[in-house]
Design goal:
Blueprint lengths: L3 E6 L5 H7 L7 E4 L8 H13 L5 E4 L4 H6 L8 E4 L1 H12 L9 H17 L4 E6 L10 H20 L2 E6 L2 E4 L2
Parallel strand pairs: 1-5, 1-6, 2-3, 2-4, 4-5
Antiparallel strand pairs: 6-7
């Protein structure tokens, strides 16, 4: 397994399952970035599907904004780390910063956290696999929030790809090795 891998793909492309398949079944740390919403049955069902798919021997950590710090604490010899996924992590940052309705100044803390994540991935002592949505291949979103999300996630993905040894794009369930 490579030291740093970025797995990209569209909705239901198979990116999470592919990323999970890169890790050993006996030991891994699964970092879940999604914020739970008990009022959203569909979202909870998606989370439950991911939980069912993981080997029981994997440790799960629910992690929000502190993702860079979690990766920075990894030591050589730790089990591989799977972060699933960066789109939900970024959404939480945008929510917390009030960026959906705010002006450009609200993006400064979001981008600073993205740079902290990039540095943490570059320096992570344990192997790490990152999962993220690839949202820049389709129609230009009709809403400001849609364009904001697409642009910020595209920036984050590009910055992370710079420090990853391997970058894979899933299209219709088929992994395409970009690097």
């Amino acid at each position: 397994m490579t030291r740093r891998t970025l797995v990209l793909g569209g909705a239901r492309s198979g990116k999470s399952a592919h990323a999970e398949g890169l890790l050993p079944a006996d030991a891994a740390t699964y970092v879940a970035t999604a914020r739970r919403d008990p009022a959203d049955a569909d979202w909870e069902a998606r989370i439950a599907e991911h939980v069912r798919r993981r080997p029981a021997s994997w440790r799960t950590v629910e992690c929000g904004e502190q993702l860079p710090e979690l990766l920075s604490q990894a030591t050589q010899g730790d089990p591989p780390i799977l972060v699933d996924d960066l789109a939900t992590w970024l959404t939480g940052l945008l929510d917390d910063a009030g960026a959906w309705e705010g002006g450009p100044e609200t993006l400064a803390p979001v981008r600073a956290r993205g740079e902290a994540l990039r540095a943490a991935v570059a320096d992570c002592a344990a192997p790490v696999v990152l999962v993220s949505a690839e949202v820049g291949l389709g129609v230009v979103p009709a809403t400001r929030s849609g364009r904001l999300f697409r642009d910020e996630l595209g920036r984050l993905n590009a910055r992370l790809a710079e420090v990853c040894d391997e970058v894979v794009l899933l299209v219709a369930g088929v992994p395409l090795k970009l690097r």
